[in-house]
Amino acid sequence: MFRLTKIKMANWSLASKMAKTVVKDGGAAISTKEKKGKKDKPNPCQPSSKTKEEKKKKDVKPAVVIEPDTTPKGEKKDVLGKPMLDAYHPKAVEAAWYDWWEKKDFFHADPKAVLAGKQKAYTMVIPPPNVTGALHLGHALMLAIEDAIMRQKRMKGYQTLWLPGVDHAGIATQSVVEKQIWKKEKKTRHDYGREAFVKKVWDWKDEYGGKINNQFRRYGISVDWKRFAFTLDPTRSKAVTEAFVRMFEKGMIYRATRLVNWSATLKTAISDLEVEHIDLAGKTFLSVPGHDPNKKYEFGVLTHFTYKVKGSDETIEVATTRLETMLGDVAVAVHPNDPRYKHLHGKELVHPFVKDRKVIVITDDILVNMDFGTGAVKITPAHDPNDYACGQRHKLE
């Protein structure tokens, strides 16, 4: 008889040894080696007595020693004189190749063949990363896809230009550089002056732009380094000026007085995209940039005050959450159907601080809500977008 034994898949390789067993008296199985007087071996179907630590030591493979690449910079790498490694080791495989590609101008676009009609052109501008930071996984994904496209076009016979570059990042770069010089030297950009501070920004660009370029090279992307661009370099700056002049001459852009977002901390105007608007339902305490970070200030509270009607003892009461902006008031708006103020339409008011300022009562059914506050709204066109639009409608200063 044969004895049937269940064997785990992990021990399947040992099953062949069991095939060599012979049946002894009473059906007990012994190996052919046992018949020759050899010592008993452990049953492969029984749990191993070896500890996990012993198994780990047995499974650990010796570390692969990778010798540093000795290829001279810019020279072609010798891959025939060295044995091939058993696995892919990036440092060993990728070393030296990019320097050789760059020295050979493999990625440099030559316009002569295109101008002569011998080749078609294929051009792509790299989305320039901000010079304030470093490349991340998102850049790696984007660049891998773009590089695949460029290499495919190059192999198809196109004259390819993939333009590399970095972006100046505007106010973000200025903010980073300002924080840096304050941290190191306790100075502001005003202490340096315009020209010296601009030089500081360029130094920052050279440092961090250089780090980004090294990352570009580590990715192995096939860009034309001889045409590297920075969004504030002379060529790009001239192109921007030319573009704006052409659009101005065509009437596509024009100059006009507009509201700007003034940063009290940065002491400069910033883009609408860099402003976060917060709607407050009522009294709210918020921290203010440039002030004590541990202190909070009250916002969203209506303050009531009155304007005196010129030539009389009568007053008109207004409510505002920004009392300090009354220094720029040029009018007080009421709803044309509000019976409380009909007798004041067109009347002139007295500004308590600017005596020669002409402040008049106007009617505006777009801006004014009769049921909110006092129903009378102070108008400061230079402060608020809604006030500005009202000022445009009524031709206010």
Report what the structure shows.
By secondary structure, the chain is of the alpha+beta class. Among the domains are: 1-35, no CATH class; 110-255, Rossmann fold (3-Layer(aba) Sandwich); 302-394, Valyl/Leucyl/Isoleucyl-tRNA synthetase, editing domain (Isoleucyl-tRNA Synthetase, domain 2, Alpha-Beta Complex), CATH 3.90.740. It has helices spanning 15-18, 32-35, 52-59, 90-94, 97-103, 111-115, 137-155, 171-185, 189-192, 194-219, 234-249, 385-394, and strands at 21-23, 29-31, 121-125, 159-163, 165-166, 229-230, 261-263, 268-270, 284-286, 297-299, 303-309, 315-320, 331-334, 348-350, 359-363, 376-379. The strands form 6 sheets. A 6-stranded mixed β-sheet has the order 12-11-14-15-13-16, covered by helices on one side. It has a two-stranded antiparallel ribbon with strand order 1-2. Strands 3-4 form a two-stranded parallel sheet. The longest helix has 26 residues, at 194-219. It is elongated. The chain starts with 14 loop residues before the first helix and ends with a helix.
The coarse overall form would be elongated
What's the helix count?
A: 12
- Percent of residues in β-strands: 15-25%
Mean pLDDT: 85
Strand tally is: 16
Q: What is the radius of gyration computed over CA atoms, rounded to a whole number of angstroms?
A: 39 Å
CATH topology of the domain at 110-255: Rossmann fold
Low-confidence stretches: 1-5, 19-37
The SSE string, one letter per element, is: HEEHHHHHEHEEHHHEHEEEEEEEEEEH
The first-level CATH class of the domain at 110-255 is given as Alpha Beta
Q: What is the CATH homology-level superfamily of the domain at 110-255?
A: HUPs
Name the CATH architecture of the domain at 110-255.
Answer: 3-Layer(aba) Sandwich
**Helix coverage percent of residues?**
25-40%
State the distance separating the first and last CA atoms: 112 Å
- Please list the strands of the largest sheet in the order they lie side by side: 12-11-14-15-13-16
